[in-house]
Design a protein that fits this description.
Shape: elongated
Strand order of the largest sheet: 1-2-3-5-4
Protein name: Exodeoxyribonuclease 7 large subunit
Catalytic activity: Exonucleolytic cleavage in either 5'- to 3'- or 3'- to 5'-direction to yield nucleoside 5'-phosphates
Number of strands: 13
GO cellular component, one term: exodeoxyribonuclease VII complex
Oligomer: single chain
Family: Belongs to the XseA family.
CATH superfamily of the domain at 130-285: Succinyl-CoA synthetase domains
Strand content: 15-25%
Structural class: alpha/beta
Main location: cytoplasm
Length: about 425
């Protein structure tokens, strides 16, 4: 349970009809008035502090300005009041989107239970300080390689759909549409509106970027604004936005339109255009120029093709002018005579080869016939074989009673051996040998 300090500072005695907040119980609760008085007394001890932030609302009413101040690095906000007695001492051009430092003192209004801060002084944050922080962030991102030209993606030659992030009904939107459609009438856009300054600039631009980057039909994204002073362009140097652009998968064109002190978005984008009009000219090709280029290429192709055909015709005429092609009959006749002579020589050689082969065949046939067993049988000789097929070469191989098959020139007959006749003839062989 929270314990409050004694209510003895504000100069006004707390209501006596209730217990102090520190002594309250369920049976004896404190009153709302006494609780608010205690909070006021506690808050009134706080000293004045200097705080830095961005003005996100600015409502001028009779006697005071009611506004809100937002932290530049988070979503934290506070309510502030500027009484009319202080307005004369602060810059008259303060408004939504301004980056300021203010001297504030906490205040708690007992009647409404409203906590806010009362402003006693306020001024713009020095642009030099902002630029110094901006340059430090620029150096850090450059060291990380987010500005490296090698990581920048090329733009498509003819995007089917262009994603556009810009302010609603802004001149930047009109410039991009008008110049793109003049260059290529069929160009199509997917437009997401976002605040181009103030506290809504970064979150709305991030949401639009995420939506277009996730659309598979979008080929390139243009983030456009029609220029402005460095103070109003600070949203396009926000680190969250810069890193989101670097991480996007779709090529991104920065067309913020500020030449000097350009925002970090220009450095990390895949292409920096000087103005929204320049972005349209860089992203969309000119249909007239493309038609002229096509006509020029067609003319060059026709010329080259005509030159090639003329060159080939000239070479063909040159070949046809040669004697061999101009009158080919003599060479054909010469070649025909050569073929006739070669054919005759081939026939003669083939005839001689056949005749020689025939003679050789006859000689071999005569030799074979002379050595043939049939020729031997024709001269009166016979071949004697035993029943087992063995040819008899010795009379001893056919003792008396041996069955013999005798083959003569014309057929065979069976015989039976009566024994060896060598002894009966005087002991000599049939041819007189012993």
């Amino acid at each position: 349970m929270t314990t409050f300090e004694p209510e003895s500072i504000a100069g006004e005695a707390p209501p006596a009809d209730s217990v102090a907040p520190r002594d309250s119980t369920a049976e004896a609760p404190t009153s709302v008035a006494r609780l608010n008085g205690t909070i006021r007394d506690f808050v009134s001890r706080w000293n004045t502090v200097w705080v830095e932030g961005e003005i996100t609302s600015w409502n001028v009413r009779a006697g005071a300005v009611f506004a809100r101040l937002k932290d530049t690095q988070s979503d934290a906000t506070i309510s502030i009041r500027i009484w009319s007695s202080v307005r004369g001492r602060i810059p008259s051009d303060l408004g939504i989107g301004d980056h300021v430092v203010a001297a504030v003192k906490a205040d708690y209004f007992v009647k409404a239970g409203d906590f806010s801060f009362t402003v006693s002084a306020m001024k713009h944050v020095g642009l030099g300080d902002q630029l110094e922080r901006l340059e430090k962030l620029r150096a850090d991102l450059r060291r990380e390689g987010l500005f490296d030209p090698a990581r920048k993606r090329p733009l498509p030659f003819l995007p089917h759909v262009i994603g556009l992030i810009t302010g609603e009904k802004s001149d930047a939107e009109k410039d991009v549409h008008r110049n793109s459609e003049l260059r290529w009438p069929q160009v199509r856009f997917r437009t997401e509106y976002a605040a181009v300054q103030g506290d809504r600039c970064v979150p709305e631009t991030l949401a639009a970027l995420a939506k277009l980057d996730a659309d598979p039909d979008v080929d390139v994204i243009i983030i456009a604004r029609g220029g402005g002073d460095p103070q109003t362009l600070l949203g396009f140097s926000d680190e969250l936005l810069v890193r989101a652009v670097a991480a996007a998968s779709t090529p991104i064109v920065s067309a913020i339109g500020h030449e000097n002190d350009h925002p970090l978005l220009d450095d990390v984008a895949d292409l920096r255009a000087s103005t929204p009009t320049d972005a349209a000219k860089r992203v969309v090709p000119d249909v007239g120029e493309q038609r002229a280029l096509i006509a020029q290429l067609r003319s060059r192709a026709t010329t080259r093709l005509s030159q090639r055909i003329a060159h080939d015709i000239a070479q063909l005429d040159q070949l046809r002018s040669r004697p061999v092609l101009r009158s080919p009959e003599p060479i054909i006749e010469q070649r025909a005579q050569e073929i006739f002579l070669l054919s005759a020589r081939s026939r003669d050689a083939l005839t001689r080869a056949i005749e020689g082969g025939s003679r050789r065949t006859a000689e071999l046939r005569a030799s074979l016939r002379a050595l043939s067993p049939a020729a031997t049988l024709a001269r009166g000789y016979a071949i004697a074989q035993r029943a087992d097929g063995a040819i008899l070469r010795d009379s001893a191989d056919a003792p008396a009673g041996t069955a013999i098959t005798v083959t003569v020139e014309h057929g065979s007959f069976r015989a039976t051996s009566e024994g060896d006749l060598t002894a009966e003839a005087g002991g000599g062989d049939v041819d007189g040998r012993r």
